[in-house]
Amino acid sequence: MTLGKGCAMRLLLMLALILVAPARLAAQTPPPPYVKPEGLRQVSPHVYVIPDNSVPTVSNIGFVVGERAVLVIDTGLGAPNGAKVLAEAQKLGGSRSLYLVTTHVHPEHDLGAGAFPATTKMIRAESQVQEIADDGLAISERFKSMSPLNAELLKDAQFRKADVTFKNSYDLDLGGVRVRLMAMGFNHTKGDTAFFAQPDAVLFAGDIIMTRLPNVTGPESRVRQWLSSLDTLEALKPKLIVPSHGPTGDAAMIAPYRAYFRRAPV
Questions:
Q1: Tell me: the pLDDT tens digits for 154-177?
Q2: Domains in the chain: ranges and CATH
Q3: Three-class SS state of 60
Q4: Coil, strand, or helix at residue 15?
Protein backbone atom coordinates (compact mmCIF):
# COMPACT_ATOMS: atom_id res chain seq x y z
CA MET A 1 0.00 0.00 0.00
CA THR A 2 1.42 3.36 -1.03
CA LEU A 3 0.58 6.45 0.99
CA GLY A 4 -0.21 9.66 -0.80
CA LYS A 5 2.07 12.60 -0.17
CA GLY A 6 -0.48 14.32 2.09
CA CYS A 7 -1.10 11.19 4.16
CA ALA A 8 2.63 10.57 4.51
CA MET A 9 3.17 14.11 5.75
CA ARG A 10 0.34 13.78 8.27
CA LEU A 11 1.76 10.48 9.51
CA LEU A 12 5.22 12.01 9.97
CA LEU A 13 3.68 14.94 11.86
CA MET A 14 1.78 12.56 14.15
CA LEU A 15 4.94 10.56 14.84
CA ALA A 16 6.83 13.75 15.61
CA LEU A 17 4.14 14.85 18.07
CA ILE A 18 4.18 11.43 19.74
CA LEU A 19 7.95 11.63 20.16
CA VAL A 20 8.02 15.24 21.34
CA ALA A 21 5.05 15.07 23.74
CA PRO A 22 6.82 13.07 26.51
CA ALA A 23 9.74 15.52 26.46
CA ARG A 24 7.36 18.47 26.73
CA LEU A 25 5.45 16.76 29.53
CA ALA A 26 8.68 16.06 31.39
CA ALA A 27 9.68 19.68 31.03
CA GLN A 28 6.35 20.82 32.46
CA THR A 29 6.35 18.40 35.40
CA PRO A 30 7.75 20.23 38.45
CA PRO A 31 10.49 18.63 40.53
CA PRO A 32 9.36 16.79 43.66
CA PRO A 33 8.68 19.05 46.69
CA TYR A 34 11.79 18.11 48.63
CA VAL A 35 13.79 20.48 50.82
CA LYS A 36 17.41 20.35 49.63
CA PRO A 37 19.63 20.89 52.71
CA GLU A 38 22.79 20.59 50.61
CA GLY A 39 21.97 24.07 49.33
CA LEU A 40 22.25 25.64 52.81
CA ARG A 41 24.07 28.97 52.68
CA GLN A 42 24.99 31.62 55.22
CA VAL A 43 23.48 34.99 54.26
CA SER A 44 24.61 37.07 57.26
CA PRO A 45 26.60 36.55 60.49
CA HIS A 46 23.67 34.83 62.27
CA VAL A 47 21.31 33.77 59.47
CA TYR A 48 21.29 30.75 57.15
CA VAL A 49 18.88 29.83 54.38
CA ILE A 50 18.01 26.64 52.51
CA PRO A 51 16.74 28.02 49.18
CA ASP A 52 13.62 26.62 47.55
CA ASN A 53 15.29 26.64 44.10
CA SER A 54 11.98 28.08 42.86
CA VAL A 55 10.33 24.65 43.10
CA PRO A 56 6.54 24.82 43.66
CA THR A 57 5.36 23.67 47.11
CA VAL A 58 8.87 24.11 48.52
CA SER A 59 9.60 27.10 50.73
CA ASN A 60 12.76 28.96 51.62
CA ILE A 61 13.82 27.71 55.06
CA GLY A 62 15.50 30.05 57.53
CA PHE A 63 17.71 29.57 60.59
CA VAL A 64 18.72 32.35 62.99
CA VAL A 65 21.53 31.16 65.25
CA GLY A 66 22.22 32.79 68.59
CA GLU A 67 24.53 31.94 71.46
CA ARG A 68 21.76 30.20 73.42
CA ALA A 69 19.15 29.13 70.87
CA VAL A 70 18.26 28.63 67.22
CA LEU A 71 15.09 29.89 65.55
CA VAL A 72 13.81 27.81 62.61
CA ILE A 73 11.56 29.60 60.11
CA ASP A 74 9.26 27.28 58.12
CA THR A 75 9.42 23.49 57.95
CA GLY A 76 8.90 22.08 54.47
CA LEU A 77 6.02 19.89 53.27
CA GLY A 78 5.33 17.13 55.79
CA ALA A 79 7.42 15.31 58.38
CA PRO A 80 10.02 13.86 55.92
CA ASN A 81 11.00 17.38 54.92
CA GLY A 82 10.68 18.62 58.49
CA ALA A 83 13.19 15.98 59.58
CA LYS A 84 15.73 17.37 57.09
CA VAL A 85 15.17 20.88 58.42
CA LEU A 86 15.55 19.67 62.00
CA ALA A 87 18.83 17.91 61.16
CA GLU A 88 20.27 21.15 59.75
CA ALA A 89 19.12 23.13 62.79
CA GLN A 90 20.87 20.63 65.06
CA LYS A 91 24.05 20.84 62.98
CA LEU A 92 24.03 24.62 63.21
CA GLY A 93 23.03 24.84 66.85
CA GLY A 94 24.37 21.73 68.52
CA SER A 95 22.72 21.43 71.93
CA ARG A 96 21.18 24.92 71.80
CA SER A 97 17.45 25.28 72.44
CA LEU A 98 15.17 25.23 69.40
CA TYR A 99 12.34 27.62 68.58
CA LEU A 100 10.04 27.11 65.59
CA VAL A 101 7.91 29.63 63.69
CA THR A 102 6.15 29.71 60.33
CA THR A 103 5.38 32.55 57.94
CA HIS A 104 1.86 31.15 57.44
CA VAL A 105 0.00 27.88 57.84
CA HIS A 106 0.11 26.52 54.30
CA PRO A 107 1.45 22.95 54.31
CA GLU A 108 4.87 23.57 52.74
CA HIS A 109 5.58 26.11 55.48
CA ASP A 110 3.94 24.57 58.54
CA LEU A 111 3.14 20.87 58.28
CA GLY A 112 6.67 19.58 58.74
CA ALA A 113 6.56 20.67 62.38
CA GLY A 114 5.66 17.17 63.54
CA ALA A 115 9.27 16.08 62.95
CA PHE A 116 10.57 18.40 65.66
CA PRO A 117 11.07 17.09 69.22
CA ALA A 118 8.69 17.98 72.03
CA THR A 119 11.37 20.22 73.55
CA THR A 120 11.08 22.61 70.58
CA LYS A 121 9.11 25.75 71.45
CA MET A 122 6.50 26.58 68.81
CA ILE A 123 5.61 30.28 68.67
CA ARG A 124 2.50 31.44 66.81
CA ALA A 125 0.69 34.70 66.28
CA GLU A 126 -2.85 34.54 67.65
CA SER A 127 -4.09 35.05 64.09
CA GLN A 128 -2.39 31.79 63.06
CA VAL A 129 -3.97 29.96 65.97
CA GLN A 130 -7.37 31.32 64.97
CA GLU A 131 -6.87 30.39 61.32
CA ILE A 132 -6.06 26.81 62.27
CA ALA A 133 -9.14 26.70 64.54
CA ASP A 134 -11.35 28.10 61.77
CA ASP A 135 -10.08 26.09 58.79
CA GLY A 136 -8.60 22.93 60.29
CA LEU A 137 -6.78 20.70 57.82
CA ALA A 138 -8.78 21.75 54.75
CA ILE A 139 -5.68 23.25 53.14
CA SER A 140 -3.76 20.03 53.81
CA GLU A 141 -6.45 17.98 52.07
CA ARG A 142 -6.26 20.31 49.10
CA PHE A 143 -2.50 19.86 48.87
CA LYS A 144 -2.84 16.09 49.22
CA SER A 145 -5.16 16.02 46.23
CA MET A 146 -2.50 17.63 44.03
CA SER A 147 -0.36 14.48 43.77
CA PRO A 148 0.26 11.05 45.35
CA LEU A 149 3.66 12.31 46.54
CA ASN A 150 2.06 15.25 48.35
CA ALA A 151 -0.39 12.83 49.96
CA GLU A 152 2.48 10.62 51.10
CA LEU A 153 4.48 13.50 52.53
CA LEU A 154 1.46 14.89 54.37
CA LYS A 155 0.26 11.57 55.75
CA ASP A 156 -0.84 12.03 59.38
CA ALA A 157 0.42 15.63 59.39
CA GLN A 158 -1.18 17.85 62.02
CA PHE A 159 -0.73 21.47 63.01
CA ARG A 160 1.54 21.75 66.01
CA LYS A 161 0.07 23.43 69.06
CA ALA A 162 1.68 26.71 70.08
CA ASP A 163 3.79 26.84 73.23
CA VAL A 164 3.90 30.64 73.06
CA THR A 165 1.39 33.00 71.41
CA PHE A 166 1.40 36.74 70.78
CA LYS A 167 -1.08 39.28 69.45
CA ASN A 168 0.88 41.91 67.49
CA SER A 169 4.61 41.41 68.03
CA TYR A 170 7.04 39.39 70.10
CA ASP A 171 10.79 39.89 70.64
CA LEU A 172 12.78 36.68 70.91
CA ASP A 173 16.29 36.82 72.40
CA LEU A 174 18.45 33.98 71.06
CA GLY A 175 21.64 35.27 72.72
CA GLY A 176 23.56 37.94 70.83
CA VAL A 177 20.79 38.21 68.25
CA ARG A 178 17.16 39.19 68.63
CA VAL A 179 14.29 38.40 66.31
CA ARG A 180 11.12 40.46 66.15
CA LEU A 181 8.06 38.36 65.31
CA MET A 182 5.28 40.41 63.72
CA ALA A 183 1.64 39.50 63.03
CA MET A 184 0.93 41.23 59.72
CA GLY A 185 -2.84 40.84 59.30
CA PHE A 186 -4.56 39.27 56.30
CA ASN A 187 -2.33 39.74 53.26
CA HIS A 188 -1.70 36.34 51.69
CA THR A 189 -3.38 34.48 54.58
CA LYS A 190 -5.13 35.33 57.84
CA GLY A 191 -2.07 34.36 59.86
CA ASP A 192 0.75 36.02 57.91
CA THR A 193 3.77 36.49 60.18
CA ALA A 194 7.09 38.19 59.38
CA PHE A 195 10.43 37.92 61.19
CA PHE A 196 13.22 40.49 61.45
CA ALA A 197 16.63 39.32 62.69
CA GLN A 198 18.71 41.97 64.44
CA PRO A 199 21.47 43.15 64.20
CA ASP A 200 21.76 41.44 60.80
CA ALA A 201 18.74 43.32 59.38
CA VAL A 202 17.48 40.19 57.60
CA LEU A 203 13.72 40.11 56.99
CA PHE A 204 11.73 36.92 56.43
CA ALA A 205 8.71 38.38 54.66
CA GLY A 206 6.63 35.32 53.84
CA ASP A 207 4.44 35.82 50.77
CA ILE A 208 4.02 39.53 51.57
CA ILE A 209 7.12 40.39 49.49
CA MET A 210 8.45 38.16 46.71
CA THR A 211 10.02 38.61 43.30
CA ARG A 212 6.97 37.08 41.60
CA LEU A 213 3.44 38.47 41.46
CA PRO A 214 1.54 38.71 44.77
CA ASN A 215 -0.42 35.61 45.71
CA VAL A 216 -3.82 36.90 46.82
CA THR A 217 -5.70 33.92 48.22
CA GLY A 218 -8.90 35.11 49.86
CA PRO A 219 -11.72 37.66 49.70
CA GLU A 220 -10.63 39.12 53.03
CA SER A 221 -7.32 40.24 51.55
CA ARG A 222 -7.33 44.03 51.12
CA VAL A 223 -5.13 46.37 49.10
CA ARG A 224 -4.94 48.85 52.00
CA GLN A 225 -3.75 46.12 54.37
CA TRP A 226 -1.06 44.90 51.98
CA LEU A 227 0.18 48.45 51.38
CA SER A 228 0.26 49.04 55.14
CA SER A 229 2.29 45.85 55.59
CA LEU A 230 4.76 46.97 52.95
CA ASP A 231 5.18 50.29 54.78
CA THR A 232 5.76 48.49 58.08
CA LEU A 233 8.38 46.15 56.64
CA GLU A 234 10.14 48.86 54.64
CA ALA A 235 10.47 50.98 57.81
CA LEU A 236 12.66 48.22 59.26
CA LYS A 237 15.26 49.04 56.56
CA PRO A 238 16.13 45.42 55.80
CA LYS A 239 19.50 44.71 54.19
CA LEU A 240 18.26 41.34 52.93
CA ILE A 241 14.73 40.06 52.30
CA VAL A 242 14.06 36.32 52.29
CA PRO A 243 10.64 35.67 50.74
CA SER A 244 8.61 32.51 51.21
CA HIS A 245 9.36 31.51 47.64
CA GLY A 246 11.92 32.48 45.05
CA PRO A 247 15.18 34.44 45.16
CA THR A 248 16.28 36.66 48.03
CA GLY A 249 16.84 40.37 47.48
CA ASP A 250 17.14 43.72 49.20
CA ALA A 251 14.67 46.48 50.05
CA ALA A 252 14.27 47.26 46.35
CA MET A 253 11.92 44.24 46.21
CA ILE A 254 9.27 46.31 47.97
CA ALA A 255 8.75 49.00 45.31
CA PRO A 256 7.30 46.72 42.59
CA TYR A 257 4.76 45.30 45.06
CA ARG A 258 3.75 48.79 46.16
CA ALA A 259 3.34 49.88 42.54
CA TYR A 260 1.27 46.77 41.79
CA PHE A 261 -1.15 47.32 44.66
CA ARG A 262 -1.47 51.05 44.04
CA ARG A 263 -2.84 50.16 40.60
CA ALA A 264 -5.23 47.58 42.04
CA PRO A 265 -8.85 48.33 43.09
CA VAL A 266 -9.15 49.21 46.80
A1: 999 999 999 999 999 999 999 999
A2: 34-263 (3.60.15.10)
A3: coil
A4: helix
